[in-house]
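From the methods appendix. Each design record in this collection lists the tokenized structure first, followed by the designed amino acid sequence. Records were kept in a plain field format so they could be parsed without special tools. The example shown here is representative of the layout used throughout.

RECORD:
FOLD TOKENS (339 positions):
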């Protein structure tokens, strides 16, 4: 299960939340890996399970959420069976996370310095003075001007873009091997967004770490990711390197997502096509393929049997009955017909 170059292996996990009306499965049969030095993009509509996937890795699912099946291993160590104490040593140190809205993770009542120094000293054996120096160096690295004075400011004194830079500084200060970035730039305007993404990529590449980048934005994926996972209703429905995903998407849902990004054609922007229908609710999942309620190519089998993630070629897989040999003959021939 663990390949030699794999930093993280998620193997067949199921995540269940207990609620007042019973339990719901937010993730099912989710398997993927992240290689060392790789940027893995995760994309999919709201509610498909992107954040739950990252919170499962961090073991931050809260009181009601639990990984009920499967295993997650990081550097060959099963995270799913570590004690909370052992997990705390990994969080913020070997695996760190950047959230969409920095004010939810920056504490408004402490200065940036206090928060950074606390994180540093939790994981590295440094004096307060050394930790402060490291924090200032890191703030400079992420492009914070006058880092020596800003470090004593409170988070609200900074603009959104600056706060997000501080979050990156905090996430990277202990040199994690894996950075999980959950919609890290959605709240920012487009120019700042590009700067922050560039910065993240540069810093991570310098330290040969990996990024799991969650986003709604296929443009960000095209710009940043080496490989992409597409999620739909709590499952992975396609997994491919970024070029294959854009040039040769196989799942009807991925094809629909790609058709929904605007293409410049001369001076005209082509009209967006959106996928008709809506995502089924966790309480009311279709029995067969979860995309069957919206799929233009739905067959009888799709309504009754749930497809597995099918390996199509090296590093490319998709969860669709139409891609099986029985249904489509040669997959490449099928592809000609399909898009
Ligand atoms: N604490 C919770 N209790 C119950 N259900 C939850 C909980 N957290 C998430 N879910 C459910 O799990 C599913 C996946 O949620 P998740 O937050 O991972 O979506 P997402 O893909 O990150 O969406 P978005 O793009 O809007 O951030 C949703 O149906 C959500 O309602
Ligand atoms: Mg989310």
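DESIGN:
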């Amino acid at each position: 299960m663990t390949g030699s170059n794999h930093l993280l292996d998620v193997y067949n996990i199921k995540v269940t939340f207990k609620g007042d009306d019973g339990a719901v499965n937010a993730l099912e049969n989710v398997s993927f890996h992240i290689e060392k030095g790789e940027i893995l993009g995760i994309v999919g509509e709201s509610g498909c399970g992107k954040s739950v996937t990252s919170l499962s890795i961090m073991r931050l699912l809260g009181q009601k959420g639990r990984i009920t099946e499967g295993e997650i291993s990081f550097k060959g160590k099963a995270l799913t069976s570590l004690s909370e104490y052992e997990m705390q040593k990994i969080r913020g140190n070997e695996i760190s996370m950047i959230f969409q809205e920095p004010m939810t993770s920056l504490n408004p009542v402490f200065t940036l310095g206090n928060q950074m120094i606390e994180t540093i000293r939790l994981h590295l054996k440094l004096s307060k003075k050394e930790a402060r120096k490291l924090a200032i160096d890191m703030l400079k690295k992420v492009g914070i001007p006058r880092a020596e004075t800003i470090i004593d400011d409170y988070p609200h004194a900074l603009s959104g873009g600056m706060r997000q830079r501080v979050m990156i500084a905090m996430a990277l200060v202990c040199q994690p091997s894996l950075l999980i970035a959950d919609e890290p730039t959605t709240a920012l305007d487009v120019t700042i967004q590009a700067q922050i993404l560039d910065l993240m990529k540069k810093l991570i590449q310098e330290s040969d770490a990996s990024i799991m980048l969650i986003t709604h934005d296929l443009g960000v994926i095209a710009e940043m990711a080496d490989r992409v996972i597409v999620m739909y209703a709590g499952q992975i429905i396609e997994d491919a390197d970024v070029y294959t995903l854009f040039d040769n998407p196989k799942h009807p849902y991925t094809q629909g997502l790609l058709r929904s990004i605007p293409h410049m054609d001369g001076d005209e922007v082509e009209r967006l096509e959106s996928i008709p229908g809506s995502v089924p609710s966790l309480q009311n999942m279709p029995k067969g393929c979860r995309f069957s309620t919206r799929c233009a190519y739905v067959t009888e089998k799709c309504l009754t049997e749930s497809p597995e993630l099918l390996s199509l070629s090296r590093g490319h897989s998709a969860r669709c009955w139409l891609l099986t040999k029985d249904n489509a003959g040669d997959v490449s021939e099928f592809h000609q017909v399909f898009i």
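APPENDIX NOTE: Residues 190-206 form the longest helix (17 residues).
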